User: Fold High-affinity zinc uptake system ATP-binding protein ZnuC from bioreactor metagenome.
Amino acid sequence: MVNLSEVTFAYDQDIVIQNLTLTIDRGSFTAVIGPNGAGKSTVLKLIAGLLTPRTGTVMVSGQDVRTARLGGLIGYVPQNYGKNVCGFPATVEEVVRLGTIAGQHDRHFSQSAVNHIVNHMLELVGCQGIRKKRIGDLSGGQQQRVMVARALAGNPELLLLDEPTSGVDYEASEKIYELLGQLNQNLDVTVIMVSHDIEKATHWADKVACINRGLCFFGDSQEFNLNHIQSRHLWFYNG
Ligand SMILES: Nc1ncnc2c1ncn2[C@@H]1O[C@H](COP(=O)(O)OP(=O)(O)OP(=O)(O)O)[C@@H](O)[C@H]1O
Ligand SMILES: [Mg+2]
Assistant:
């Protein structure tokens, strides 16, 4: 589903990703972990086609990532979305409605179909009760949930989530993990999720990628959990 080949990326002069090669299978659920500043969000943005590598290639579903992005294959939930939306005048349901546009690249949904998707997604993330509120007026955790709903509304084949449960309370984050697990298992959505909650993330994910400028570990989450301590060493001391 995703193929990064010898990817190097720099913001200005600072190289933050060096020679990263990574293959993610269709239908898998990958947890991306690593310390602050390791380049996890940068890797997600490269896979989302929001950043362009200096060298190397990023392919999604066998095509250049920019083509895949335009085709609506990719759903993306950014980190700390709330910081960007203070004062944004749209309501929760309008934000989720915008998400349905990505799913309509090769077909057109009727108004009632769009309404149905919006209702369903709001229900999935438990935000029916706040649908008329302005997005900028929500708490950080509520905003995260709305962003998950918006990404899902596009019916993506690949879902990228950057710390989707940060700031979300225990019950709601359980729901988000469960929802991601169901989408992955039942609808075959490929999920790549950055998280600092290693225990939870590796419980739900079947693969783990530890990133610290490069790839320090990639393998089954079971294998990772067995070697948890050693793996921690690997990513902290590599790079
Ligand atoms: N827009 C930017 N311009 C310049 N440097 C940046 C930019 N975004 C990130 N960086 C730098 O790139 C490096 C990797 O950042 P990135 O956000 O990918 O880390 P991260 O692993 O997601 O960290 P965290 O766990 O804190 O979210 C950091 O050193 C950061 O300071
Ligand atoms: Mg980050």
